[in-house]
Amino acid sequence: MNVLMISLDKSLLKKESSVSRRHDLYTRELDGEIHVVLHTAHKGIQKVKQGNLVVNPSNSFFKPFFLYDACKIGREIIKKNDIDLIVTQDPHITGLIGVLLKKKSKIPLCVHFHADFLDNPYWIKENPIN
């Protein structure tokens, strides 16, 4: 199984981080590849490949551009690889990107949700842009 993942977790860029090692293990269990589109600021960050884990930085100049950049990168990955599943990190920006890619490609989408933000007073007080 080959997976396209949309993420905000920058520790995926560090080959020896626990997150990268965990995702590398996922690729072994899947017997396939995980292609991650990762939000990064415009700094010329290069693609990172570790086994069958490929992290594609967005290098988005302005955070709202991540939506456009991630869709563009995701479409390129889908064209070049036999992607079986799109996975997003949250139901917000990464989820929206996943929905847009799913509609265009007809690939199944799995939206992860690991938070309690709806009733979390700290999250509610955050700036709406976040």
SSE run: EHEEEHEHEH
Give the fraction of residues assigned to helices: 25-40%
Instruction: Quote the beta fraction.
Output: 15-25%
Number of strands: 6
Computed Rg: 15 Å
| Major sheet: arrangement of strands | 3-4-2-1-5-6
Q: Count every helix, treating DSSP H or I runs of 4 or more residues as helices.
A: 4
pLDDT < 50 stretches: none
Shape: globular
Characterize the main sheet: 6 strands, mixed
Structural class: alpha/beta
- The overall average pLDDT, rounded, is 89
The first-to-last residue Cα distance is: 33 Å
Q: What does this molecule look like?
A:
This protein is α/β, with parallel strands linked by helices. The protein contains four helices and six strands. It has a six-stranded mixed beta sheet with strand order 3-4-2-1-5-6. Helix 1 (18-30) links the parallel strand 1 (3-7) and strand 2. The longest helix has 15 residues, at 66-80. It is globular, with a radius of gyration of 15 Å. The relative contact order is 0.18. The mean pLDDT is 89.
